[in-house]
Specification:
This protein is an all-alpha fold. It contains two helices and no strands. Helix 1 packs antiparallel against helix 2.
Length: about 140
């Protein structure tokens, strides 16, 4: 297979992996921001519930606040699980990107070797031509003398 084609394929693969990584990172950032909002809401509800219980609260209201706090706690737990999954996916994508980079560098090394070999071959041919010309000149000068 042509190394140029392989290099192009690997570069496209690397770009795709980087785009997927950025999407996963954005999803993690969004999930963390949402969890922070939920935790803020939970703290506000807990503060309000504490103020109301010290001021005197009806039993029905206490149940409503407790249910709201339980719901928020459940949503926070779900967000933490989601974040853990996204972190694992990010780690996996990071490993895939590292592997793709290693493969690209291997191809670049092979291309460099191929270029150097081509230059050596051209220099060898040029030297052969130069030697042949010098030999002909020497032979022609010997005939002329």
């Amino acid at each position: 297979m042509n190394l140029g084609v392989l290099r192009t394929y690997r570069a496209q693969l690397e770009e795709r992996l980087q785009a997927e990584f950025r999407q996963l990172q954005q999803a993690l950032d969004d999930a963390q921001a949402f969890r922070a909002r939920l935790e803020h809401d939970e703290a506000q509800h807990a503060h309000i519930w504490l103020e109301k219980t010290t001021a005197g609260i009806l039993p029905g209201e206490a149940g409503d606040y407790a249910a709201a706090l339980d719901t928020l706690a459940g949503q926070i737990a779900q967000q933490k699980k989601k974040e853990a999954g996204l972190r694992a996916a990010l780690d996996q994508k990071r490993m895939e990107m590292l592997e793709a980079t290693k493969e690209r560098k291997k191809i670049e090394i092979l291309e460099d070797r191929e270029r150097r070999e081509t230059v050596r071959e051209l220099e060898r041919r040029e030297q052969d031509v130069t030697d042949e010309i010098a030999g002909r000149r020497s032979f022609t000068q010997e005939d002329a003398a």
